[in-house]
């Protein structure tokens, strides 16, 4: 027992150290990366220096490769002792493009006494480091001028289009023709150095002969003074067509074994009114030479990387140690699988009847997808013997509730041209009083704010599991917000949903696409797919006389009837649907009419579009239809058309399929899972021609339409209210079981924690 307690102390100590290391890493991450546009800022300093001095000198170096032991501790001191006005790196200042390496480089640069400019190299852009380079230093290719010299920095990493850079380079060299000196800096050299085996430098120089010839010819024609590169750990100088080319790759990275030109160095460039002088400078007046120097460089390089990554290494070691210790303790723990009569946990939920509290920001008399979904699920759960209580807002309109609906007082009833929204006073004590009175077992919230947030707080207070159904793509409703709607079109709604979902026990997504969305925004709580159920008994017992009356009311025997069911608001994309129907009319000889069922603030605007397209005899806005009557319209219709991209489920798609309608819809998260393309309908991109052609295909092909009609009906059978209620019941039971086990675990943990005090 003492041995086990000692191991627990080791485990918690390891986790404590791990926490400190992670905190340190986060601290250095945020503090050390708080720098931007270094190249731009230093260019301004260089230009000021050149105004004050007639003669200037600068150092050119490359391949620092995050070398802490050499560049940071030794070479910088030597550079600071030189009479330099600024320093230019030809790239590969970093071993890789990780944020930690950028932080270390900035720390090294801060020790240099003069302005420091770096070109972009392979090291800077690896591991998606191009974004970091752009943020901390600036563009991948750029230029600047001093009083008598023009400096051009190229990107040879492949992140910038070669053709684009060609045009840019010619323009820059034309600008540079007005200056006495023109210098070009790039990471990859234009030629393979002599006396080096190809296998050692494969891919380290530009191998595209056509591109190399273009650059060499251009530099020669434009009288470039010198071209500097690095990427290879040597010093080399060559004159090609009158232009001096330098490879300077010895600022701190590993050298090449047994190569007489591979040593630590930089090039000092002295610009005077008379000429430009290039001077090779060795960092180390070497005592070690040849193969030993190269081996020593690699040892320094490896040691530098070790020091840079020491925190990461320690974090990794602590994680491995903690996991190993935890696994060891887990598998060596003595267990007793017989019933513990001191701890009574009823794990038989098969016949347990639950008191379920549902919290929603909208409900009847407001007619929408969420109220319908809640009402159907509640009905299915009551049929299974459970009690369901719906905490919903009051409305100014009349409504008839039974005792299961608990109305909550409002702060205000917010009304806009597009949307009405009751804002519940979540601070009223009556909500919690009613909640406690109902002896609730589990909470089910349907919105990630407002009264939904109240449900989560009650769950935490009374140790109850909370289920959250993600119904709505909230970013599509941002235009309804009076102030700051642009913010809610950004990442804000996604972060709100993620944070809220993480506070819940499990999440219900109506489709696989919605589940993928939740995972993509970082939700790690369990997510199950559970669409809204369909009232199948109504479809199976439909009054065919009423169906026939609907057809007779709107179409003749030689016309097809299309329909769409939607609230008439901007986010439902109905202007696209009307434009698509105009395309259909203009491109088929078949007669048809389309009923748009629903009402909303966009009705007048949509009617104006219909009139403007001369579709007033074809596209009919017939207003709201009672939910139980709408089945007759589905059954009377030949095709269901849809264009909304704001749905998470597209409940009307399933309902129309139950009414034997094949569907043509714009592809989105709410339609993708419900439509099997070519089987029970078509899903298209948001393109009038694509959408219209699919509608025409179904209008003109009777056999295809009949086949898809039957497929749609068969597909919808899986989604009956009874089936969906049983799946929800199973989810509730699972969460209750997990919740009870967690409560029991916390009690045991409290007891175990008390032992450490003795």
Provide an overview of this structure.
The protein is an alpha/beta fold. The chain folds into 3 domains: 10-310, Metallo-dependent phosphatases (Purple Acid Phosphatase, chain A, domain 2, 4-Layer Sandwich); 355-529, Rossmann fold (3-Layer(aba) Sandwich); 541-719, Glycogen Phosphorylase B (Rossmann fold). It is built from 25 helices and 26 strands. The strands form 5 sheets. The chain has a 7-stranded parallel beta sheet, sandwiched between helices. Strands 4-5-6-7-9-8 form a 6-stranded mixed beta sheet, with helices on one face. Helix 1 packs antiparallel against helix 11, helix 18 crosses helix 21 and helix 19 (574-587) packs across helix 23 (688-700).
- CATH topology category name of the largest domain: Purple Acid Phosphatase, chain A, domain 2
DSSP summary, beta strand count: 26
Q: Which stretches of 5+ consecutive residues score pLDDT under 50? A: 285-301, 335-346, 477-485, 751-758
Query: What about the largest sheet?
Result: 7 strands, parallel
Radius of gyration, in angstroms, nearest whole number:
36 Å
CATH class category of the largest domain: Alpha Beta
The proportion of residues forming helix, as a percent range, comes to 40-55%
CATH architectural name of the largest domain: 4-Layer Sandwich
Strand order of the largest sheet: 14-13-12-17-18-19-20
Count of helix runs: 25
Distance between the termini: 14 Å
Mean pLDDT equals 86
């Amino acid at each position: 027992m003492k041995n086990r307690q000692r191991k627990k102390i080791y485990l918690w100590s390891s986790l404590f150290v791990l926490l400190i290391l992670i905190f340190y890493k986060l601290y250095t991450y945020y503090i050390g990366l708080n720098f931007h546009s270094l190249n731009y800022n230093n260019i301004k300093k260089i230009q000021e220096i050149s105004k004050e001095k007639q003669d200037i000198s600068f150092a050119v170096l490359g391949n620092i490769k995050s070398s802490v032991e050499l560049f940071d501790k030794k070479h910088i001191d030597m550079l600071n002792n030189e009479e330099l006005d600024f320093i230019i790196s030809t790239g590969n200042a970093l071993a890789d493009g990780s944020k930690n390496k950028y932080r270390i480089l900035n720390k090294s640069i801060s020790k240099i006494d003069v302005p420091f400019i770096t070109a972009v190299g392979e090291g800077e852009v690896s591991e998606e480091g191009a974004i970091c380079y752009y943020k901390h230093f600036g563009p991948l290719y750029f230029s600047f001028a001093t009083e008598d010299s023009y400096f051009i920095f190229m990107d040879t990493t492949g992140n910038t289009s070669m053709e684009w850079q060609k045009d840019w380079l010619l323009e820059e060299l034309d600008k540079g023709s007005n200056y006495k000196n023109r210098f070009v800096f790039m990471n990859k050299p234009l030629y393979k150095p002599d006396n080096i085996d190809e296998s050692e430098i494969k891919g380290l120089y530009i191998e595209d002969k056509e591109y190399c010839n273009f650059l060499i010819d251009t530099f020669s024609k434009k009288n470039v003074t010198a071209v500097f590169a690095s990427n290879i750990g040597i010093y080399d100088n060559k004159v090609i067509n009158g232009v001096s080319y330098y490879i300077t790759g010895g600022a701190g990275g590993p050298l090449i074994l047994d190569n007489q030109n591979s040593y630590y160095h930089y090039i000092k460039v002295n610009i005077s009114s008379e000429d430009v002088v290039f001077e090779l400078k060795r960092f180390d007046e070497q005592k070690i030479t040849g193969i030993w120097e190269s081996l020593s460089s690699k040892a320094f390089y490896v040691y530098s990387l070790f020091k840079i990554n020491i925190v990461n290494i320690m974090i990794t070691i602590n994680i491995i140690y903690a996991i190993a210790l935890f696994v060891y303790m887990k598998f060596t723990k003595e267990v007793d699988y017989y019933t513990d009569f001191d701890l009574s946990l009823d794990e038989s939920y098969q016949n347990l009847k639950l008191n379920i509290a549902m919290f929603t920001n909208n409900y009847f008399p407001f007619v929408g997808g969420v109220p319908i979904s809640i009402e159907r699920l509640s009905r299915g759960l009551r049929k299974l013997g459970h009690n369901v209580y719906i905490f919903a807002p009051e409305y100014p309109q009349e409504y008839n509730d039974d005792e299961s609906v608990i109305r909550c007082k409002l702060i205000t009833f917010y009304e806009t041209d597009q949307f009405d929204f009751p804002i519940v006073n979540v601070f009223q004590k009556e909500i919690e009083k009613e909640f406690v009175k109902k002896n609730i077992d589990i909470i089910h919230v349907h919105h990630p704010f407002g009264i939904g947030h109240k449900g989560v707080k009650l769950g935490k207070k009374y140790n109850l599991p909370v289920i959250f159904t993600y119904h709505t793509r909230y970013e599509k409703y941002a235009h309804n917000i009076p102030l700051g709607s642009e913010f809610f079109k950004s990442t804000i709604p996604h972060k709100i949903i993620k944070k809220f979902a993480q506070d819940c026990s499990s999440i219900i997504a109506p489709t696989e696409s919605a589940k993928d969305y939740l995972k993509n925004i970082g939700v790690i709580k369990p997510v199950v797919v559970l669409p809204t159920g369909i009232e199948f008994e109504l479809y199976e017992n439909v009054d065919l006389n009423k169906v026939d009356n609907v057809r007779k009311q709107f179409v003749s025997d030689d016309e097809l009837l299309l329909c769409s069911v939607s609230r008439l608001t901007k986010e439902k994309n109905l202007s696209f649907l009307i434009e698509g129907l105009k395309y259909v009319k203009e491109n088929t000889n078949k007669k048809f009419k389309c009923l748009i069922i629903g009402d909303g603030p966009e009705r007048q605007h949509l009617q104006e579009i219909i009139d403007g397209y001369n579709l007033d005899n074809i596209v009919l806005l017939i207003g709201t239809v009672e939910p139980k009557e709408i089945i007759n319209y589905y059954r009377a219709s030949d095709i269901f058309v849809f264009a909304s991209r704001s749905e998470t489920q597209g409940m009307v798609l399933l309902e129309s399929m139950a009414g034997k309608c094949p569907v043509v819809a714009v592809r989105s998260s709410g339609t993708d899972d419900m439509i099997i393309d070519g089987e029970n309908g078509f899903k298209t991109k948001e393109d009038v021609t694509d959408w219209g052609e699919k509608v025409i295909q179904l209008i003109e092909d009777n056999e295809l339409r009949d086949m898809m009609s039957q497929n749609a009906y068969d597909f919808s059978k899986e989604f009956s209210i009874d089936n969906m209620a049983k799946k929800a019941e199973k989810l509730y039971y699972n969460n209750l079981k997990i919740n009870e086990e967690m409560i029991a675990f916390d009690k045991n943990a409290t007891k175990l924690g008390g032992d450490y005090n003795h």
